[in-house]
């Protein structure tokens, strides 16, 4: 992963990222990021006729409970994947209701109630974060003070791993895809903290030649740090990009 810890003037990559940042959020069937507590109800969107993956950050599912509809060929299914602790929800096209509900228990002992709408027909992912599961690191001990660059790197690492940080709230922030040349960029999430804000983008190479992301040392003016998940993006491939700003820089 490429890390750059000082602001750069906008060029072709920076310009399209800046454009995507300013685009208004629009409804789309993409990754969903939801913060939930033990025993809370989670309102989400599930695909009809396609799989939806649900993952717990810093935790995993241990058990799922649902009522059978009485129509086995028309009922939705929840499959537990034991290696990562994720669950996959499959809603058949012929399923009559526009909503599904079920309970899930995590390995940490938390219980979540899912009450989800059935919309769209594209496979998607739902990431659930529970602030109670935030893990402290050695440098987070009493009296520890991170420099701004260290805090920016910590935030990028959390965004890259779909992790959580104390005092940060994760929210889905979907923008219209923007294109410059052979690069398509769409903002998908934001991490809001007391002093820093992190933005997550999806990059897609729509051109016919590879894009050297590591060789384009630029980002929107004012960015404290940015990183690409991959150094080179081949035609048709996607990767994520991460930007970090000081909170006052976005106001």
Query: Which structural class matches the secondary elements?
Result: mainly beta
Give the overall shape, derived from the CA principal axes.
globular
Number of strands: 18
Low-confidence stretches: 1-16, 22-29
CA-atom Rg in angstroms? 20 Å
> What value does the average pLDDT take?
79
Give the SSE string.
EHEEEEEEEEEHEEEEEEEE
**Ends: how far apart?**
29 Å
How many H/I helices?
2
Q: What percent of residues are in strands? A: 35-45%
Q: What's the main sheet like?
A: 7 strands, antiparallel
Helix content: under 10%
Looking at how many chains there are and whether they match, the oligomeric state comes to single chain
Brief account:
By secondary structure, the protein is mainly beta.
What does this structure look like?
With 251 residues, this protein is mostly beta strands. The protein is built from 2 helices and 18 strands. The strands form 4 sheets. Strands 1, 11, 12, 13, 14, 16 and 18 form a 7-stranded antiparallel beta sheet that branches. The chain has a 5-stranded mixed beta sheet with strand order 2-10-4-7-6, with no helix packed on it. A hairpin with a 3-residue loop joins strand 13 and strand 14 (196-205). The radius of gyration is 20 Å and the shape is globular.
């Amino acid at each position: 992963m490429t890390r750059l810890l000082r602001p750069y003037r906008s060029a072709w990559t920076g310009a399209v990222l800046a454009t995507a940042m300013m685009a208004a959020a629009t409804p789309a069937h993409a990754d969903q990021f939801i913060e939930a507590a033990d025993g809370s109800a989670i309102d989400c969107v599930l695909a009809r006729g396609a799989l939806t993956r649900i993952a717990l950050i810093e935790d995993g599912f241990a058990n799922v409970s649902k009522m059978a509809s009485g129509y086995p060929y028309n009922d939705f299914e929840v499959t537990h994947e034991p290696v990562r602790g994720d669950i996959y929800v499959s809603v058949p096209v012929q399923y009559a209701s526009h909503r599904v509900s079920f309970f899930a228990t995590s390995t940490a002992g938390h219980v979540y109630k899912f009450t989800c709408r059935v919309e769209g027909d594209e496979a998607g992912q739902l990431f659930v974060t529970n602030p109670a599961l935030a893990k402290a690191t050695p440098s987070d001990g009493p009296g520890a003070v991170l420099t701004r660059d260290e805090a920016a790197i910590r935030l990028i690492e959390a965004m890259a791993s779909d992790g959580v940080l104390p005092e940060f709230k994760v929210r889905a922030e979907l923008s219209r895809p923007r294109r410059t040349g052979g690069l398509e960029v769409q903002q998908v999430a934001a991490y809001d903290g007391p002093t820093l804000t992190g933005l997550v983008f999806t990059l897609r190479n729509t051109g016919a030649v590879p894009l050297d992301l590591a060789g384009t040392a630029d980002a929107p003016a004012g960015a404290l740090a940015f990183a690409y998940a991959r150094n080179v993006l081949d035609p048709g491939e996607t990767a994520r990009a991460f930007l970090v700003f000081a909170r006052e820089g976005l106001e």
